[in-house]
């Protein structure tokens, strides 16, 4: 089955901790994206990558980091510099000109 | 001005009625337009794509695009309770760093049995 997987489904972070969210796709899509969604709000772009070994900051990149070493993988690290990380994190992929396909999401909660 | 704007609703329609969802966008060079359905607690699901002026039909869904008015809409015919969800409008724009997607905040739809 082709698709996008995200893990874990739920993640709990302690103050001062860095955590990494996984995103993998087997759709052979070049572009991958990370969004954050807060309750009652729309999607906000954190980072995106159009090709391997290249990525760009989105609207709310502060406190986050990414890597794109393989076409299939685009992990997101939430660093301790992100002061309000509790949110629903969504990874997506697309081919040029077409719509995005989303993974199931990761819910991050700060303890 | 936001890149994509939607009426947040909530919108309630009786079962079997037509639900009409609307979206406006700010960038005239936008090329691609999408509608997503998001159930509570789930991730968005792509349900319609439209690239040229006019109507595009897929089952009970019809997307309408008017580039001159910078307006895109989604009609859901014969609405069912299972259509109750938040509907997100998205626009693909070519920016300096490549293609970016901009999302509206979503319209909450409730179909009343």
Give a quick precis of the structure.
The complex is a heterodimer of chains A (about 110) and B (about 110). Chain A has about 110 residues and is mainly beta.
User: Which ranges of chain A are low-confidence, i.e. pLDDT below 50, for 5 or more consecutive residues?
Assistant: none
Largest sheet of chain A: 7 strands, mixed
Work out the oligomeric state of the chains in this entry.
Answer: heterodimer
- CA radius of gyration of chain A: 13 Å
Overall mean pLDDT of chain A: 93
- DSSP, total strands of chain B: 11
In percent, how much strand structure appears in the residues of chain B?
A: over 45%
> Percentage of helical residues of chain A?
under 10%
- Structural class by secondary-structure content of chain B: mainly beta
Q: Kindly state the number of beta strands of chain A.
A: 11
**What is the helix fraction of residues of chain B, given as a range?**
under 10%
**Helices and strands of chain A: which structural class?**
mainly beta
Number of helices of chain B: 0
Number of helices of chain A: 0
| Largest beta-sheet characterization of chain B | 6 strands, mixed
């Amino acid at each position: 089955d082709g698709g996008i997987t995200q893990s874990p489904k739920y993640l709990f972070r302690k103050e001062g901790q860095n955590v990494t969210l996984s995103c993998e796709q087997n759709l052979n899509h070049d572009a991958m994206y990370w969004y954050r969604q807060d309750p009652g709000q729309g999607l906000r772009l954190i980072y995106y990558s159009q090709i391997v070994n290249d990525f760009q900051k989105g609207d709310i990149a502060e406190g986050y980091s990414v890597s794109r070493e393989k076409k299939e993988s685009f992990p997101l690290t939430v660093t301790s510099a992100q002061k309000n990380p509790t949110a629903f994190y969504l990874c997506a992929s697309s081919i040029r000109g077409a719509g995005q396909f989303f993974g199931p999401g990761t819910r991050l909660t700060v303890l | 001005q936001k890149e994509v704007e939607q009426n947040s609703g909530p919108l309630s329609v009786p079962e079997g009625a037509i639900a009409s969802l609307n979206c406006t966008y700010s960038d005239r060079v936008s090329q691609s337009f999408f509608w997503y359905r998001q159930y509570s607690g789930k991730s968005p699901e792509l349900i319609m794509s439209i690239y040229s002026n006019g109507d595009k039909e897929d089952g009970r869904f019809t997307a309408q695009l008017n580039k001159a008015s910078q307006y895109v809409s989604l009609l859901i015919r014969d609405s069912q309770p299972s259509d109750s969800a938040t509907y997100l409008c998205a626009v693909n724009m070519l920016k300096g760093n490549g293609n970016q997607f901009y999302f509206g905040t979503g319209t909450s739809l409730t179909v009343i049995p």
